[in-house]
Design goal:
alpha+beta, single chain, 13 helices, 4-stranded antiparallel sheet, 10-stranded mixed sheet, about 25% strand, about 500 residues
Length: about 500
């Protein structure tokens, strides 16, 4: 895995005539460094948000979340299982090599088969990929796969001789890596990029784990954009005079994961008691200043496959206590709840204490916690899940389906959850070309998963950004922060 802990330096320099003023980079505060510079190794939202500046995919979402061409200029379907993509001419990687169909074939196969891949679930129905010419790629699917264009937006294209672990990224994106350290990441504009963009500014991601500190650095002028701010930032920024706030309904569902590695959670009555002890409206009021909505499933409204009938559980503390007693815990039990900086685990702890569950909140830096989550070492976890392509299948295919490395299902199923009925519904949805039927299958799969109470949705969150005045920036639903979309006015 490419780590950001050391200093990576590519031999890059920006030469400017002496008469020109030095270009001041755009500075964006984020909560942690990317987990890797290998775009196929991680399916983690912040990593994707940064790496999307460096790499491109065959297709992409625009700001309005519409799918359009990226490295592929066009595509066609000779039959319901075949997709033929034509690449744009003249595209080069950052090292000068021309993009070819062989690079695309290598990248898609690598995303499916790389040990530890986080992206195989986006390609679960892909049977084969081949170069049908220097600039033509043919993808065959096992069955009809209506979501392929959306799924391809998540799979970056790398050179065909990329190493087993990419630590120095080479992509076709608008930026290339200048320097990556513990506290900041410098990205440099690629001159004469294929998008033929206006002159881009250098982009620096500033790593600041604590939300309050990101806000303070924004107000102090140390950064121009701060992402993932606490909800109290809205009022602070409105009164600041220097900045403005953007608070919009996002695509993140905050949830509790109850892993069977913690023995009490193997009893459904205990899981139900935890669910009943949660005060979701109270959680949103206290933890999120009212910005959010109680959640009853792992996707937000507007995501394809959202089930309107899956509503948030209503709190019932007396029933929660009775269930714990029936399960053999009349006096409750002790458990450690883990979460990254910025989440409010102490609010959960206070709520569960009323039902007799004594929670020890444990906050960690994301770069330390995330690898342990991936290894399945965290028994009780407060996190967030995102449907990156606005499809419930994003969550169901990778996060929920039984792990099946041969096909790519379950690659982010770190809790080893398994339900054959859910698996069958998920796979049936993947191959359905009837969009009404497909939505019904995704909804039914989500109902099955929610009934198991392994994942307890808490809230659909707002995304809160702070922006210095004089900057044009609009958040994206996929939460990517793209330098090419940020303009100094």
């Amino acid at each position: 895995m490419g780590k950001v802990g050391g200093v990576l330096v590519l031999a890059l320099a920006v030469a400017s005539p002496a008469c020109r003023e030095p270009v001041v980079p755009l500075r964006v505060a984020i909560h942690s460094s990317p987990q890797s510079w290998d775009p196929h190794l991680q399916n983690e939202i912040l990593t994707s948000a940064v790496l999307a500046n460096v790499y491109d995919a065959l297709t992409e979402f625009d700001r309005a979340s519409r799918i359009g061409p990226a490295l592929a200029s066009e595509w066609r379907n000779p039959d319901e299982r075949t997709w033929v993509f034509r690449l744009r001419p003249g595209i080069r990687f950052h090292d000068g090599r021309a993009l070819s169909a062989e690079d695309v074939v290598f990248s898609l196969d690598r995303a499916r088969s790389l040990p530890g891949t986080g992206l195989a679930s986006y390609l679960v129905e892909v049977e084969s990929v081949r170069a049908a010419g220097p600039d033509t790629v043919e993808i065959r699917t096992r069955r009809p796969f209506a979501a392929l264009l959306a799924k391809l937006t998540q799979v970056s294209i790398v050179p065909r001789d990329a190493p087993a672990r990419i630590t120095q990224p080479v992509g076709t994106g608008s930026y290339r890596l200048g320097r990556a350290g513990l506290q900041s990441i410098d990205l440099l504009p690629v001159p004469d990029g294929w998008r033929k963009e206006r002159e881009l500014l250098p982009l620096t991601f500033v790593v600041e784990g604590r939300p309050r500190s990101r806000l303070e650095r924004l107000v102090a002028g140390e950064v121009e954009i701060a992402a993932d701010l606490p909800e109290e930032a809205v009022e602070v920024l409105r009164e600041s005079g220097c900045c403005r706030e953007i608070a919009v309904p996002g695509s993140t569902v905050e949830y509790l994961r109850l892993s069977p590695i913690f023995p009490p959670f193997r009893d459904r009555r205990v899981r139900q008691a935890i669910d009943l002890a949660l005060d979701r409206p109270g959680w949103i009021a206290v933890a999120h200043r009212g910005l959010g909505q109680p959640a009853g499933q792992l996707v937000v409204p507007g995501v394809f496959g959202f089930a309107p009938d899956l509503r948030a559980t209503q709190r019932d503390v007396p029933l929660a206590r009775r269930l714990l007693a029936e399960a053999g815990y009349p006096d409750g039990f002790d458990v450690v709840l883990e979460y990254r900086q910025g989440r409010r685990g102490r609010v959960v702890a206070a709520q569960l204490a009323e039902a007799g569950v004594r929670v020890e909140p444990r906050e960690s830096a994301w770069t330390e916690l995330h690898p342990r989550v991936r290894r399945g070492e965290v028994g009780f976890y407060l996190g967030g899940v995102v449907a990156a392509t606005a499809e419930a299948s994003d969550v169901l295919d990778g996060f929920v389906h039984t792990r099946d490395e041969a096909r790519g299902y379950g690659v982010t199923n770190h809790s080893l959850y398994s339900n054959p009925k859910a698996d069958a519904l998920i796979e049936a949805a993947a191959s359905s070309l009837d969009m009404v039927r497909r939505r019904e299958l995704l909804q039914e799969a989500m109902r099955v998963v929610m009934s198991d109470l392994r994942f307890l949705p808490v809230a659909g969150l707002y995304e809160v950004y702070g922006i210095r005045k004089g900057l044009d920036f609009s958040p994206r639903l996929d939460m990517r922060v793209l330098g090419r979309e940020i303009v100094r006015e």
